[in-house]
Amino acid sequence: MEFGVYVHVPFCARRCDYCAFATWTDRPQLIPAYLDAMVAQVDRARRPATVAGHGSSASVADGHERLASPATSVFFGGGTPSLVEPDGLMQVLAAIPRTPDAEVTVECNPDTVTAPLLDTYRRAGVNRLSFGVQSMVPHVLAALGRTHDPASVATAVGLARSAGFATFNLDLIYGGAGESIDDWRRSLEGVLALEPPHVSAYALTVEAGTPLADDPARHPDDDDQADKYELADQLLEAAGLAWYEISNWARPGHECRHNRLYWNQGDYLGIGCAAHSHHDGRRWWNVRTPDRYLELMAAGRSTASAGEVLDPEVRRLEGLQLALRTAEGVPVESLPVDDPDLDGLIRVAGGRARLTVAGRLLANEVAVRLR
Predict the structure, then answer these.
(1) Residue 111: inside a domain, yes or no?
(2) Largest CA distance in the chain
(3) Alpha-helical runs (H) found in 239-326
(4) Dist. CA 327–CA 355, nearest whole Å
């Protein structure tokens, strides 16, 4: 049975203008206590479900804030997990029971990667890295507010290979201000020159409350992003990385197991502030700030902020929406395949309807026709 654990590390050296995640640049003094609290949350989740959730108003999570089984995947995200002292971070991993073949991923900024850091990760059981590359063009990186340069990406990949990491992901963002189609091609060709086993390419999105949202002149253009997505699919497929989810391409056997758990509506437990969890149709999420998270853990209370129980029909439809985004697609009866509005957007074979490249660009429009 697949079961995931997500560990949220909310600390960054610098906050990017487009970022709406629960991250902070001004609270490094909290890191030691925060790591200890996450170990304590894991320990609490390993006990029978009689204490976790007591005193919390988020009753939807009561009795479920626990490790249902050994984790088949663990994902350290953020924030910048690689910014944190590695021995302390790996103490959190050591507390999490997991299967012998579990996938364990840590997100890293290229300019935080060192040989000793990766050696510590490998010895502790990390077997997958995800590098926040975003671009391989200096002026685009600057516009996105990134602190690294293209050379540090190549250095980080070389260190990862030397440390014995066979699987890693290079994460890209397209559509930033000042990025031409030629710039995007340079980014794609730059990462492909490093022969990665996995690449993620995300369209820049405007999130409310971010500096990017307050600056319309820097908002991405839909047509420009569509052109860049098509170029990404063309170049990545030609390089042997097969598309398997709208924003993800991988060589055979290198798909992200943890993300697939989400797309398959599997169960997972969130550790740390702002982390989300799911158990059998129940979803809940932890308090957003590390300060409040630490207060609740110190008081022995649930860290859940709120949650919901999914209606079976809502859950079924959500499952179809997630499946539609993947290469597996949905059962053909889930879509009106004879609808002329879907011409060129889906391909039907073997009883499944799958998105074409054009369909991926209009996935939301296709999804509203799911039944």
Answers:
(1) yes
(2) 59
(3) 257-263, 290-298, 312-324
(4) 8
Q: List CB contacts of 73: < 8 A, sequence separation 6 or more.
A: 2, 4, 5, 102, 103, 104, 105, 257, 258, 261
DSSP characters over 6-33? EEEE-B-SS--TT--SS-BSS-GGGHHH
* 202-213: pLDDT as tens digits: 999 999 999 889
Q: Domain containing 219: what range?
A: 3-261
Residue entry with tokens 């429009």: 365
Residue 131 predicted with pLDDT over 70: yes
Give pLDDT, residue 58: 42
Name the one residue in this structure whose structure tokens are 């409310």. 208
pLDDT of residue 16: 86
Rounded CA gap, 164 and 156, in Å?
13
Is pLDDT of 4 > 80?
yes
Q: What is the CATH number of the domain that holds 152?
A: 3.80.30.20
By CB atoms closer than 10 A (0-12, 13-18, 19+), residue 4 is buried
Cα 269 to chain centroid distance, Å, stands at 14
